[in-house]
Design goal:
globular; Endonuclease Iii, domain 2; mainly alpha; Endonuclease III, domain 1
Length: 216
């Protein structure tokens, strides 16, 4: 498995994708530069993805800043020290606060190794992550994609990706996650690069930054 670690890896994936699916020539042309967006594996990266779930980028950025101001380092130890009142003041929903704590506790107890999981086969890694209540497939996919560098992950539950694929390929209707999984099968073994491509396309064509990670 060739992990996505550099801009050169993304470029190589784009070349192969254009050969795999000729429809992507036009998408690549319109998308412009496709960012790598790699984050170090670990609790901080996972926490940022959890914070970014189902909120706007601006809201996620604001919550993340308050979390950093209140907790200091974003580590399992610091997260577990936050009170319910701290979490409410930060702007974390009860569900997100509980998910962050469960993940922190799993890491703290040694049940979840967020570095080692990045080197596991994708399906096994996803099962390990989604065993934590509150972490679904989208969160697991995004963590493995951006923190793990997995080359063949496609977060089909991401609404921006659904919209981008529908718009770029002229589908008429936004595909369901299951339909998008089927569409993306053609882009293996570079589905991780194709996801980056369609996020870049969405940002350029819809003029909205929607990549689901916090890079601060």
């Amino acid at each position: 498995m060739h992990m996505i670690k550099t801009d050169a890896d993304v470029a190589a994936g784009l070349v192969d994708l254009a050969l795999i699916d000729v429809r992507l020539f036009n998408v690549i042309d319109k998308a412009g530069p496709v960012p790598l967006r790699r984050l170090p594996p670990g609790y901080r990266g996972l926490a940022g993805i959890i914070v970014a779930q189902m909120v706007s980028r601006a809201s996620a950025d604001a919550i993340w800043r308050r979390l950093e101001e209140t907790a200091g380092d974003i580590t399992p130890h610091h997260m577990l020290r936050l009170s319910d009142e701290d979490c409410r003041t930060i702007g974390l929903s009860r569900a997100k606060a509980e998910t962050l704590r469960r993940a922190a506790d799993s890491v703290d107890r040694g049940d979840l190794d967020l570095d080692a999981i990045c080197h596991m086969e994708a399906a096994a890694a996803t099962r390990k992550l989604t065993a934590i209540k509150g972490i679904g497939r989208w969160t697991a996919d995004v963590y493995l994609l951006f923190c793990g560098g997995h080359p063949d992950i496609f977060p089909s539950g991401d609404v921006a990706l659904q919209n981008a694929v529908a718009h770029a390929l002229g589908l008429g209707m936004r595909p369901t996650p299951q339909e998008l999984d089927t569409i993306a099968e053609k882009w293996a073994p570079w589905r991780g690069v194709s996801a980056r491509l369609f996020w870049a396309y969405y940002a350029r064509e819809m003029r909205r930054e929607v990549a689901p990670i916090l890079e601060g």
